[in-house]
Amino acid sequence: MYTEEDIDSAIAAGVITDDMAAAFRTHVAKLRRGPAVDEEHFRLVTGFNDIFVVIACLLLLASVAWIGAASERWFGAAAVSVAAWGLAEFFTRKRRMALPAIILLLAFIGGVLATGLLLLEKTPQTLVAASAFAAVAAWLHWLRFHVPITVAAGAASIVGSIVALLIFAVPEAKNWTTAIPLTAGFAVFALAMGWDTSDTARQTRRSDVAFWLHLLAAPLLVHPVFASLGVFSGKTTLEQAIAVILLYIAIAFVSLCIDRRALMVSALIYVLYAFSTLLKQYGVISLSFAITALIIGSALLLLSAFWHPSRAFVLKFLPHIVKKRLAPIR
Predict the structure, then answer these.
(1) Hey, how many other C-beta atoms are within 10 angstroms of the C-beta on 190?
(2) How far apart, in whole angstroms, are the C-alpha atoms of residue 263 and residue 170?
(3) Among 18-32, 60-74, 113-127, 128-142, whose mean pLDDT is lowest?
(4) Which of 26, 209, 239, 278 has a Cα at 20 to 30 A from 92?
(5) What is the DSSP code string of 300-314?
(6) Most confident region among 101-110, 192-201, 204-213, 225-234 by mean pLDDT
(7) Residues 66-77: pLDDT tens digits?
(8) 1 domain residue, yes or no
(9) Is residue 126 domain-resident?
(10) What is d(CA 179, CA 231) in angstroms, rounded to the nearest whole number?
């Protein structure tokens, strides 16, 4: 069985061309009688060996952090970053193992961030500097290993650095709990769409990069909007519930247009909470969550089963200039 990493490796080695790889992917998709697009694939586990290696890496990194912190806490964090990079040289660069690559990337970025926070005093300026260091570390890691989640990790570091800088420079920014994450969410979403539109056929690593960016953008966009509706106030009115469901329909519309389900998944918890709270207020206490989950789950399963026809229907309402930059339906 050939994985996407094997095909990418063959392209990099000059064994096959990009056109040959694209033709091969299309041929395999036809054999499997599944659409080449619209499935939102991303690489995570290629075999149980990935899980085995991840467990071993976590044990090694935890022991390195423990031993290093025995002298200085920052040294333990720095040692984790060095060890994670060294392990990535083999398991990411040579073996091209998907799950270990993600774990080692997160360990490296986390180690750099922790080192900066522990070396400097705990102030807003410290968070700005540490987040900036983490963003630079993510950029260097991307140049070396090209792990798709790296771009999202770097974007998260940049967002953290900007937020910390705003809090430090503008004291009133602490009250902008809705505007800041929402603005950051739109920025990350725009970046994700940039990667998405560069590979509408979703046959290269760019599509994987877009997937992780959408996963980062989703909570940044969804949480402040639902929080402003007072979903977590402890009491949900009928008007709030209607607003939540209308907003979720709008999110579903956007998800269908761009063929990404991350937004819907991120918003799901708010819908479940709002309607289970509403049912409790009407006397359905013991089964409120179960009934809500049954209704929402059934609706999502129906949407999943008819995702492609639903998406084809939705795309009819979009202008051609927009549709041509989105993933096509096959």
Answers:
(1) 11
(2) 30
(3) 18-32
(4) 26
(5) HHHHHHTHHHHHHHH
(6) 101-110
(7) 999 998 999 999
(8) yes
(9) no
(10) 17
- Phi and psi (nearest 5°) for 108? -65, -50
Q: Is the pLDDT of residue 201 over 60?
A: yes
The residue-averaged pLDDT of 255-267 equals 87
Angle at 29 between CA 259 and CA 264, to 5 degrees: 20
CA distances from 186 to 213, 216, 292, 320 (A): 11, 11, 30, 23
Chain-centroid distance of CA 75 in Å reads 30
Q: Is 228 exposed, middle or buried (0-12, 13-18, 19+ CB in 10 A)?
A: exposed
Burial of 173 (0-12, 13-18, 19+ CB in 10 A): middle
The answer as to whether 5 is a domain residue is yes
| Helices 149-169, 98-119: inter-axial angle, 10-degree rounding | 20
pLDDT in tens, 90-121: 999 988 888 999 999 999 999 999 999 888 87
Write the CB contacts of 265 (distance below 8 Å, at least 6 apart in sequence): 218
pLDDT band at 3 (very low <50, low <70, confident <90, very high): low
CA-to-CA distance for 165 and 129, rounded, in angstroms? Answer: 9
Q: In Å, how far from its chain's centre is CA 29?
A: 25
Count the neighbouring beta carbons within 10 Å of the beta carbon of residue 100. 26
Report the number of distinct structural domains present in the chain: 1
In angstroms, the CA 107 to CA 14 distance is 32
DSSP state at residue 46: S
pTM: 0.82
Domain assignment of residue 246, yes or no:
no
Please, which residues have CB within 8 angstroms of residue 319's CB and are 6 or more apart in sequence? none
Domain containing 28 equals 1-34
